[in-house]
Amino acid sequence: MSASRRRPPFISLVVPCYNESAVLPLFHETLTQKMGELDCVGYEIVFVNDGSRDTTLDYLRTLATLDPRVVVIDLARNFGKEAALTAGLDEARGDVVIPMDADLQDPPGLLATFLQNWRDGYDVVLARRCDRSSDSWLKRTTARAFYNLHNRLADIPLPQDVGDFRLMDRHVVDALKDLPERRRFMKGLFAWVGHRTTIVDYTRDARAAGSSKFSGWKLWNLALEGITSFSTLPLRVWTYLGALIALLSMSYAGFIVARTLLFGVDLPGYASLLTSILLLSGIQLIGIGVVGEYVGRIYMESKQRPIYLVGARYGRGSLQSPESRPHEV
Ligand code: UDP
Ligand code: MG
């Protein structure tokens, strides 16, 4: 065990919130109670308001005045969970940092086990859902398919059934902050930075209140983001597919020449001609589409826009207006 781990840590909890007013009071109460039982020198809860349209911000602002451990980062608009998490990680000051969802699906009861593993020398403690029965059948099946496909394509595998809920040591968070990309697929970035990792299992309950913010379409885009951020295989596969089709065409051409020499010319073949034209144009369009995905990503990265913009921040004794800190990267 390193010397720094013999003393209790300062803990940062990072909580992205998008329209979570229904669940936040219960979340804060449950968390505060559990944190009181932990062996730590202190803690902070960094709430990131990701452009909520309900009363989330009002509640968080009040909370920041009542609880000195609460810090609120109010993003200028909804930037999505990945950007909100990045904002929270940038703000967190703890020796260990723990991203958590606001809906209590990430159980605060697991924090003591996280800390124990950290004390045992692990830099990253992952929480794995051993029971996903609170998710729908469709979500479970598509999630499994995504992990399988992603891990087949990408060099760095994503651990199955592990979300953003995890403990990270300070130097892991610093390593994450050094990654320059703007489009951030956090699960992949977490896996990429590596470090000494262990896994603890937990049962994922249903949301305590409110509804899921991830529609099927959002999840599909997240999956695309994940694969295209961490693999170039979808780009390269067209070379092989093209070579295979060319080989097949040449063999077919050879067959036609031989057949013509042996049996003469016959005209039929309209249907097969049409089918092959349609099939090949379809394949070509898919190929162009995949290239387009990557070119789009290069384009977005090349603009070098900040990952998020902070509108205002509350708590930590410093109340800063949007004018004083407009551009946060
Ligand atoms: N979230 C966010 N920005 C978004 C969508 C979601 O900050 O654009 C937050 C949300 O408030 C919650 C967490 O991300 O704290 C996980 O969202 P949710 O529980 O809806 O996802 P699910 O558990 O259904 O996958
Ligand atoms: Mg949830």
From TrEMBL:
Q: Which CDD domains match?
A: DPM1_like_bac (cd04187)
This protein's UniProt keywords: Cell inner membrane, Cell membrane, Glycosyltransferase, Membrane, Transferase, Transmembrane, Transmembrane helix
Q: Where are the transmembrane segments?
A: 237-258, 270-295
Q: What is the lineage of its organism?
A: Bacteria, Pseudomonadati, Pseudomonadota, Gammaproteobacteria, Pseudomonadales
**Where does the record place it?**
Membrane
State what protein this is by name: Glycosyltransferase family 2 protein
| Pfam families per UniProt | Glycos_transf_2
Xref: InterPro entries = Glyco_trans_2-like, Glycosyltransferase_2, Nucleotide-diphossugar_trans
